[in-house]
Amino acid sequence: MVSAWGMTAETAxxxxxxxxxxxxxxxxxxxxxxxxxxxxxxxxLQKLREAGDMPPTIVLTAFGDIETAVRTVHELGAYWxxxxxxxPRELEVLLRRAGAHASLHTEKRMLxxxxxxxxxxxxxxxxxxxxxxIFTLLQQAGPxxxxxxxxGESGTGKELVARTIHxxxxxRQGPFIAINCAALPETLIESELFGHEKGSFTxxxxxxxxxxEVAQHGTxxxxxxxxxxxxxQAKLLRILEDSRVRRLGGKNEFEVDVRVVAAxxxxxxxxxKGGHLREDLYYRLNVFHIHLPPMRERKEDISAIAEALxxxxxxxxxxxVSDLSPDVLKALxxxxxxxxxxxxxxxxxxxxxxxxxxxxxxxHLPAFLQGRQTAAAAATAEAPVSxxxxxxxxxxxxxxxxxxxxxxxxxxxxxxxxxxxRAAEILGISLKTLHNxxxxxxxxxxxFGVGS
Length: 452
Prior knowledge:
Number of domains: 4
CATH architecture of the largest domain: 3-Layer(aba) Sandwich
Shape: globular
Structural class: alpha/beta
Mean pLDDT: 84
Number of strands: 16
Strand order of the largest sheet: 7-10-13-6-14
Number of helices: 20
Strand content: 5-15%
Radius of gyration: 30 Å
Low-confidence stretches: 374-387
Largest sheet: 5 strands, parallel
CATH class of the largest domain: Alpha Beta
Helix content: 40-55%
CATH superfamily of the largest domain: P-loop containing nucleotide triphosphate hydrolases
């Protein structure tokens, strides 16, 4: 019947057979009965949903069983239902609508992939050839089930890459759990990873789920994998092989469905030679290897990264910084950034707080960056400071320390539009200290429109 409508169909007698055929026949639309021998329609849809990216599915239902069909639509994400006996014209319209829905979904995924190649993929940004290669690898690795090993210096964004892999995978609706193996003492790391039973060791007052349980149907990032104790590495390897975990002090194993992504700032081959990383674990994790280059090797990305960071910091600190001056951008591109993106973020966070709004200027940069362009810094220092310049506070000779402090605090609050949290950060004092000072000033603070 459907061939007369210009469609190609593949048939199966029950759910398990259909799952097998879908591996060779990637259907745009699925039409399934609910009552079938073997794996029924409800179980079939559950398995499709667990696998991710379920095609639009139409459920056939007998008269009187519409309630079950509607529940299937809502709970398992089926496209719609069709009551039996099937009316050919209604079925054709429904199949064509479902097919159009599938095409829109495919176009959306293609557009998302194209956007990734134009300098942004999730929260990752960059247009350098090295970043384009990484975007390509992420698009390939993300939808797969394979383990991924991410390498790169500290601060290059390895956790951000792991999160992007999770967002590109069929597990994106599940949890993303990150654990830093270097931050946990050897006595606790197995409990954190695998969980423990009550009484399994001193202080274990109750049962606790480990990271593998918490990350069920999601992604687990093992950061600094080279710092994991070797006995724990052996247990991890076994879990990766058979997907089964036993809590500390437990008698029974249970199955887990978790994708593992590992990261390290060491060279893996050297970690293996040095005895810090098991060779068999390294090969098991290194199915996809993604290496993040340091900032000094992709300085053409600094402008785009800075723009993305400023937008994020504006939201965090409720600022309205719009851009960076040419001198500032030149200074950022001249620096080698040994701390990579993390160091750049810290510099820009300070600058965003100091600027508050408008453009980040030379004066908002820390001294170590200003020192890289002596001529520009000298020109700034020699420029006359206007008494009306809102970026400066001037006091006449004879002003007392108390009055100078008071004027500086009130002018800073004026600059931040009475945002006390941001003013305290700029002044380098606690919020409590700022509130105490304002109480001391009393009515004179209110002259500036500042309340305590």
